[in-house]
Specification:
41% of the residues lie in helices and 17% in strands. By secondary structure, it is α/β, with parallel strands linked by helices. The protein has a four-stranded antiparallel β-sheet with strand order 8-1-9-10. α4 links the parallel β3 and β4. It starts with a helix and ends in a 9-residue tail after the last helix.
Length: 361
C-alpha cells in the first residue's frame, strides 16, 4: 500500500518543461478580476452626462515568451507560425463582431490561374456548417493592378479580420502589400494549401480542409527577429475561462518544445505582467557558457607602461589611452605616473630595510 502511494506521488511530479494548470488558471482568473475592476472604475469615474456608452476596457490577452536566441534569425519572417489549439480565436471573434463596430470578414487570395475555379458561393455551401464565410476572393494580380495605389490598398485590406492566401503566392505578398500591413495579425496573410501533396493542381477539397483547419484549430504567431515574442490570444470576453486556459497550455508547450525559452508571461494590454514559467536549466546553461568563455579569454591586465613606469588605469582611462596622442601621454597620465612611482619607491625602500633578527629561545 505504501508503495502505491509513493508511485502515485512520483507520477504527479510536474516536469521542469511544463506549466502547472493551476498556475495558468490562477493567472487567467487574476486577469479577469483586473479587467472587471478596471471596467467598474471607469464606469464610476465617468462624467459622461449625455448617457453615451462608455468605451470598452481593453481585454486583449497576450502571451509573452523570452527566448535565449532570436526566434527567426537575422532575416525578417513574414510568414506566420501556426500553432495547434483547441479553440481558435477566429470563431469567437466572428461571433463578437456582431455587436462591434467592425464586421468580421475573410479575404482569400489565390493564384491568378485558380481564382476563377471557385466562388464565394461555392465555399459558402461547403463552410457554412462550421460558421465560416469567405467574403471575397481575389488574385495576387488584383493587388498589383486594382489596388496598386497605397490608399486604395489600405482601405481594401483594412476591411478584413482574417486574410488567407495560397501558399504558392504567400512569399510574393510582402512586395505587393507592403511591410506596413505585416505589423498587425489581422492584416498579415496566413498561408494555406490549395493543392494535395500527391498532385500539383488546384483542389477544392484541399482548399476547404485548409480553411477549416486555420479557422477552427490554429493560432497565428509572428516570429520576431529579437528574443521576445508576443502571441495574441484574443480577448478575455471571447472565451470561456477553461477554453482560454487550454489555449495558453497549447501555445506554451509548443514554444517550450521548439525553442530555448527562458520565461513565459501573460497579460492584457493594460494589466501587470503575470509570470507563468521560468526555465532555470536554460539560465544555468547560459551562465555556464559565459564562465567558459571567460576561461578561454586571454588574461588581461589593467596595468600599462608609460614612460617606463607601470601604471594602473581605469576603464575610462584605458579608452582615453587608445585615442590620445602618444606625445601627450606623460602629461595626461602624470598623476598616475606619480602615484605609481611613489608606490614603487615605497616598496623598494621597504625591501631595503633590515629585517629584525629572530630572538633565540
Amino acid at each position: 500500500m505504501a508503495k502505491t502511494r509513493s508511485s502515485n506521488k512520483k507520477n504527479s511530479v510536474v516536469s521542469a518543461t511544463e506549466i502547472p494548470q493551476e498556475r495558468i488558471t490562477k493567472a487567467v482568473e487574476q486577469l479577469t478580476k483586473f479587467v472587471a475592476k478596471q471596467t467598474k472604475e471607469e464606469q464610476e469615474n465617468s462624467k459622461n452626462l449625455l448617457g453615451d456608452d462608455i468605451e470598452d476596457v481593453d481585454q486583449n490577452v497576450s502571451l509573452i515568451a523570452v527566448n535565449t536566441t532570436s526566434f527567426s534569425g537575422s532575416t525578417k519572417q513574414f510568414k506566420m507560425k501556426l500553432v495547434d489549439v483547441e479553440n481558435s480565436l477566429y470563431k469567437p471573434w466572428n461571433k463578437e463582431s456582431a455587436t462591434a463596430s467592425k464586421d468580421f470578414k475573410v479575404l482569400l487570395i489565390l493564384k491568378d490561374q485558380d481564382v476563377d475555379k471557385i466562388s464565394e458561393d461555392d465555399l459558402f455551401d461547403a463552410l457554412n456548417e462550421d460558421g465560416i464565410t469567405i467574403d471575397e476572393i481575389i488574385s495576387a494580380n488584383t493587388l498589383k493592378t486594382t489596388y496598386k495605389a497605397y490608399e486604395a490598398r489600405r482601405a481594401f485590406i483594412q476591411q478584413f479580420s482574417l486574410i488567407l492566401s495560397d501558399d504558392n503566392v504567400i512569399t510574393t505578398l510582402p512586395k505587393l502589400l507592403g511591410g506596413k500591413f505585416y505589423e498587425k495579425v489581422e492584416t498579415t496573410p496566413i498561408g494555406i494549401k490549395t493543392q494535395p501533396s500527391t498532385k500539383k493542381q488546384f483542389s477544392k477539397e484541399t482548399l476547404i480542409n485548409s480553411i477549416k483547419k486555420v479557422y477552427l484549430h490554429k493560432l497565428p504567431i509572428k516570429l520576431p527577429r529579437g528574443t521576445t515574442l508576443n502571441a495574441h490570444l484574443g480577448q478575455l470576453n471571447w472565451f470561456e475561462q477553461k477554453d482560454l486556459i487550454k489555449n495558453v497550455e497549447s501555445v506554451s508547450k509548443h514554444l517550450i518544445d521548439n525553442y530555448k525559452i527562458r520565461s513565459i508571461f501573460i497579460k492584457t494590454n493594460k494589466s501587470p505582467v503575470l509570470p507563468l514559467y521560468y526555465n532555470t536549466k536554460v539560465v544555468e546553461e547560459l551562465l555556464a557558457a559565459k564562465e567558459d568563455a571567460k576561461k578561454d579569454e586571454p588574461a588581461t591586465s589593467d596595468k600599462v607602461t608609460i614612460d617606463g613606469v607601470e601604471v594602473e588605469l581605469s576603464n575610462f582611462e584605458k579608452s582615453l589611452l587608445e585615442i590620445a596622442n602618444p606625445k601627450d601621454l606623460s602629461s595626461i597620465f602624470s598623476k598616475n605616473i606619480k602615484d605609481a612611482k611613489r608606490t614603487r619607491d615605497d616598496a623598494e625602500d621597504e625591501a631595503k630595510q633590515p629585517q629584525p633578527k629572530k630572538s633565540k629561545k
